[in-house]
């Protein structure tokens, strides 16, 4: 396409209200994110009703700020993109209804985007994707290995059978009295600890690319409970380090086994847990050793944002994957539904 494609993207799938203006799928003209973490901290996790109310309060201002930062008028836009799902249904509907209203008023095409596709395409904000590739998606609600032959071609080759890895981080953080969100706090605490507990590595002995973290989570909880009953003081740094090492061992082993089987030399790590320092370090080192091209978005693009939605939306627009004003939110969408 010779003409620049400028997309206003909106993301409200969980507890960030975000809007961004992206040109040609990679050039960020603006990126506005309003986080709700402080509101949800006191509950130890995201409360859907609270999240929805915050989105209602912030969505209009966030969109206006994104346009202002980009120094654009609605008439300068090519299309509007919005996260269709997966996510909290009430939260999704705020962004979707805002996007539909904006698209209707300004006579713009509406692009529905899969949230996980957005996380994968966050890597495109730094450099073009190289195919074929495998993406390891690690977040609060997802743990998946996805094979891609080309843009918007998704094949799930492995996924969690129970807890997502980010969910396990939050639950383990809670039992060792760390605040929400647990992942960054465990990461920080683990840096001063050692893997002294040797927690289990789920499904490591099975020939599958699937993951399981519920056994690991239970092992941590049971160990802490048993130590408390016996009056044994536990080093929380060692618990954090042992848990994080177990997770890293599983994720790296499964991912590199998939890269070898599919004969792929390009790897993307996507999602909020991609911000984990040990995971980034381990994958960087191992990819260098094995001559694998690794792409991990910078930290601000690992967590939920609208720039990633705009990056994915560019390719959907090219494929004429548009929605009408009947678009509704879906709390679960298999990413393979978005495959072209």
Automatic annotation (TrEMBL):
A GO cellular component annotation in the UniProt record: cytoplasm
Database matches in HAMAP family: TsaD
UniProt GO MF annotations: iron ion binding; tRNA N(6)-L-threonylcarbamoyladenine synthase activity
UniProt KW tRNA processing keyword: yes
InterPro entries membership: ATPase_NBD, Gcp-like_dom, KAE1/TsaD, Peptidase_M22_CS, TsaD
Record's protein name: tRNA N6-adenosine threonylcarbamoyltransferase
Catalytic function, reaction form: L-threonylcarbamoyladenylate + adenosine(37) in tRNA = N(6)-L-threonylcarbamoyladenosine(37) in tRNA + AMP + H(+)
A Pfam family assignment: TsaD
Stated family: Belongs to the KAE1 / TsaD family.
Cofactor notes: Binds 1 Fe(2+) ion per subunit.
PANTHER family found in the cross-reference section: TRNA N6-ADENOSINE THREONYLCARBAMOYLTRANSFERASE (PTHR11735), TRNA N6-ADENOSINE THREONYLCARBAMOYLTRANSFERASE, MITOCHONDRIAL (PTHR11735:SF6)
The keyword Iron-sulfur is assigned to this record: no
Places the protein is found: Cytoplasm
Coiled-coil intervals, chain numbering: none
Domain Gcp-like: residue ranges: 27-310
Function: Required for the formation of a threonylcarbamoyl group on adenosine at position 37 (t(6)A37) in tRNAs that read codons beginning with adenine. Is involved in the transfer of the threonylcarbamoyl moiety of threonylcarbamoyl-AMP (TC-AMP) to the N6 group of A37, together with TsaE and TsaB. TsaD likely plays a direct catalytic role in this reaction.
Keywords annotated in UniProt: Acyltransferase, Cytoplasm, Iron, Metal-binding, Transferase, tRNA processing
Organism: Jeotgalicoccus halotolerans
Listed EC numbers: 2.3.1.234
Binding residues annotated for substrate, in chain numbering: 137-141, 170, 183, 187, 276
Matching PROSITE patterns: GLYCOPROTEASE
Positions annotated to bind Fe cation: 115, 119, 304
Cofactor section: Fe(2+)
Superkingdom assignment: Bacteria
Listed GO biological process terms: tRNA threonylcarbamoyladenosine modification
Enzyme class: transferase
């Amino acid at each position: 396409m010779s003409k620049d494609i400028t997309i206003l993207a909106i993301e409200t799938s969980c507890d960030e209200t975000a809007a961004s203006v992206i040109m040609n799928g990679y050039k960020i003209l603006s990126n506005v994110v309003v986080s709700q973490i402080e509101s949800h901290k006191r509950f130890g996790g995201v409360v859907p009703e609270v999240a929805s109310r915050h989105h209602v309060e912030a969505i209009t201002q966030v969109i206006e700020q994104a346009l202002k930062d980009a120094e654009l008028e609605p008439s300068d836009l090519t299309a509007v993109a919005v996260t269709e799902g997966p996510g909290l249904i009430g939260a999704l509907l705020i962004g979707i209804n805002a996007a539909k209203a904006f698209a209707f008023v300004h006579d713009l095409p509406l692009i529905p985007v899969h949230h996980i596709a957005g996380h994968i395409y966050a890597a495109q904000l730094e450099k073009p994707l190289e195919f074929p590739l495998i993406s390891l998606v690690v977040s609060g609600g997802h743990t998946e290995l996805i094979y891609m032959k080309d843009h918007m071609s998704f094949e799930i080759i492995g996924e969690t059978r129970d807890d997502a890895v980010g969910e396990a981080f939050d639950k383990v953080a809670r039992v060792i009295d760390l605040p929400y969100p647990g992942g960054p706090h465990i990461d920080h605490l683990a840096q001063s600890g050692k893997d002294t507990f040797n927690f289990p590595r789920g499904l490591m002995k099975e020939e599958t690319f699937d993951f399981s973290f519920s056994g690991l989570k239970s092992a941590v909880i049971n160990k802490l409970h048993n130590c408390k009953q016996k009056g044994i003081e536990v080093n929380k740094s060692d618990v954090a380090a042992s848990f994080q090492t177990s997770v890293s061992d599983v994720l790296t082993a499964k991912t590199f086994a998939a890269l070898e089987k599919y004969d792929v030399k390009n790897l993307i790590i996507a999602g909020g847990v991609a911000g984990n320092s040990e995971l980034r370090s381990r994958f960087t080192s191992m990819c260098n050793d094995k001559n694998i091209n690794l792409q991990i978005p910078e930290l601000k693009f690992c967590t939920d944002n609208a720039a990633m939605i705009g990056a994915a939306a560019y390719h959907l627009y090219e494929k004429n994957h548009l929605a009408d004003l009947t678009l509704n939110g879906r709390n679960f969408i298999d990413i393979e539904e978005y495959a072209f």
